[in-house]
Amino acid sequence: MEPEPERCCFDEWATGNARRARRKEIAAGVTRDLLEALGPARLEGRTVLDLGCGTGDLALAALARGATRATGVDLGPGAIEEARALSRERLVSDRSTFSVGDAATVHLDPHDVVFLNRVLCCYPHVDALLTNSLPAANHVYAFTAPPSTGLGGILARAETRLANIWYRARAKKFHGFRVHVHDLEMVDSRIREAGFRPIFKGRRRLAWRLAIYERTP
Q: Would you give the DSSP letter of residue 45?
């Protein structure tokens, strides 16, 4: 049996996100922006895979916008429990599955749409995450991440350094967790090499970059 993934702070964050999702359907503004950029046409009748799903609000919102089935994977057992509870409250537990796992290593069944929303920044190295998740996307691959260039990149790196000082000072609570700013040009290159073309690139203020790719015929 594989050891249980390190819980870190994901469960605590998921509890707060679940409260916001119950009030507003979607916990974070960037998540809403990603869904709006994707549009209902690319969700209607499709299956979605939400990696690092947290409380599951993105996956469940995709169901509300026409997806037929949603699967979520997250490192936090508590986060998965929140996602399952939210799916029951929204009466879609028969069309959603949430499980504990590391998206960089766990087996991923193919889905039409794969999301990595606010996930890249939680991994010190994204190569394994991209290698494992790209083959699972039949049609669409989408992510949000902190910017790595320009003024946004400068601010993101400064914020990351401050956040990691805090995480280091609270080592017993955060178990070595750190946040990261990755080279998004490298990420873009990896996705293109896997057979996708960009159909949308945008930003939410200076904090997040959004990118949506579609598999080439």
A: T
Write out the two tokens for 190: 């990896």
Nearest-CA neighbor of 194 among 126, 135, 128? 135
Token pair listed for 90 = 């929204």
Span 59-73, average pLDDT: 97
Residue 167 has pLDDT above 90, yes or no: no
At residue 139, what is the residue type?
H
Q: What is the pLDDT of residues 169-198, one digit of tens each?
A: 888 778 788 999 999 999 999 999 999 999
Under 8 Å between Cβ of 200 and 210: yes
Distance from C-alpha of 67 to C-alpha of 59, rounded to nearest angstrom:
9
Domain boundaries, the chain: 10-147+183-215
Go through the chain and tell me how many residues it has. 217
CATH level 3 topology of 10-147+183-215 = Rossmann fold (3.40.50)
Please report how many Cα atoms fall inside a 13 Å half-sphere around the Cα of residue 203, on the Cβ side: 13
- Return the closest-CA partner of residue 17 out of 83, 98, 75, 77: 83
Residues with Cβ within 8 Å of 69's Cβ and at least 6 positions away in sequence, in order, are: 47, 48, 63, 95, 96, 97
φ, ψ dihedrals at 71, nearest 5°: -125, 135
Residue 28 near residue 90 (C-beta atoms within 8 A): no
Listed in sequence order, the DSSP H helices in 51-207 are: 57-64, 77-89, 127-133, 150-169, 171-174, 184-193
